Amino acid sequence: MPEFAVWAPEPKRVRVDVEGRLHEMTADDAGWWRAAVDCAPNARYGFVLDDDPAVLPDPRSARQPDGVHARSQLWDASAVPWADDQWAGRSIEGAVIYELHTGTFTAEGTFESAIEKLDYLVDLGVDFVELMPVNAFNGTYGWGYDGVLWYAVHEPYGGPDGLVRLIEACHNRGLGVLIDAVFNHFGPSGNYLPKFGPYLSSVSNPWGEGVNLAGPQADEVRRYIIECALRWMRDFHADGLRLDAVHALVDNTAINILEELAAETDALSAAAGRPLSLIAESDLNDPRLITPRDRGGYGLTAQWDDDIHHAIHTAVSGEHQGYYADFGSMATLATTLRNGFFHAGTYSSFRHRRHGRPLDKSALPATKLVAYTCTHDQVGNRALGDRPSQNLDYGQLAIKAALALGSPYTAMLFMGEEWGASTPFQFFSSHPEPELARATAEGRKAEFADHGWDADDVPDPQDSQTFLRSKLDWDEVGQGEHGRLLAFYRALIALRGTEPDMTDPWLADLIIDYDEDERWIVMRRGRIAIAANLGQAPVTVPAGGDVVLAWGEPAAESSRATLPAHSVAVLRRFPVK
Q1: Is 379 annotated as a binding residue?
Q2: What are 370-385's pLDDT values in tens digits?
Q3: What reaction is this protein's catalytic activity (predicted)?
Q4: Which residues form the catalytic set?
Q5: Is 101 annotated as a binding residue?
């Protein structure tokens, strides 16, 4: 007989509605209400608080077949007949991650259709699939960062059963799976949690009210977060999480929630017998996130590194607006590649203050940082959602790829970048409430109008065409320059695993030369040199040997190579006789 339970310290009376029939619940001193009800294993249910007749969804609902405002449905994770026993798992450190949005990765936009593309990803050579948020959010399509029922799987993608099939299919092909989890705020539509208890804090962030991590009754809210995180890895066999914007988690307790989550993730990993990884998205440039707990850190596995993205992107593209202002020079690019962070206790002109802290390169391997040339943020949060491939030539795209994938950092791609996808990735939403839909559209236009864009040029996120434009065009794959770039990406990824010098994770062994005026850079890793010409004229660089891989036609000798404009070469130094 199923037992229904809900933490609801606010109301004086709680009843559970199971298939239209109300049942009284009994509370304990901690504010948990429980009732055992004989019902079908897939029964629909919800909770009725005090004298309000509204039937509210379960804050820990596993399934919302009719959307986030409707009744929940029972779903038993323990009854899933998993068939991925051969998957032993692996850490993300040093791996290649492929970030994708389920709704735009394929035309159908479902977990099932994503399975059909997994063999392509295996052939590409990536190690992990990272799913943008799959938690339940209001509307049929969106980025997923406005989730309100964190335990439920977005039904239009395929619900919990579809996610199980996708993860199982990934594991059976040797691919790990990471899930993007958002614990710093709730979405604006369908958040009924304040009716149950003090889930929100008085501290706000750019996306709404913050989560109660340190106020009265915060212990249960913290458990709500930690149990949700563990559930993705335990019940759905995910291999780890990407934790969204952890700098927005305001926690002034002695044991930060990230440290607590990392400790419990390690315990689950030991019990499950497979590695589990936590990757932070952080705006802090704070090594404490990835420093081991026995050395005073939080013990997360890795963190995104926007400085590397900014340094590569600005050097290649020439863009310098906004938070790119401190980047763009070859010196900045070299410093960032060599040190992991550019801002490491240095002045940030964008923030008008000092920012960051130096990384201890002798203690923390480069694989603790994730390098990339594209992410959903760095594309989708541009006014037009335009990709680098819509503004740069293929040689420039190849340079960016070689610097990121050829570096000692853990690497990540954003879906479609590997073939220079021509489709944008724009910000889209499908709020059914007219007032919220209008506010979202007007807010997006106003935000970019303040930065000099014509408001009429900014896509309406509520327009279905904005969503449809953002879907990948798989007909491009393998055609012309798209196919050539894809082959280059495949070769770069393969080199990460076959060249011994490219597996060294320590930044102390990374040597970089550059010329500011001629705009070339050489990144040396043992006998391997990655030489790139970012300029518009041929250059000769002090690196030579066998050409292992190139974009363009370099002329290489024993100690030097001549590179055409906008080209890159991977060189292996001749063996000493």
Answers
A1: yes
A2: 999 999 999 999 999 9
A3: hydrolysis of (1->4)-alpha-D-glucosidic linkage in 4-alpha-D-[(1->4)-alpha-D-glucanosyl]n trehalose to yield trehalose and (1->4)-alpha-D-glucan
A4: 244, 281
A5: no
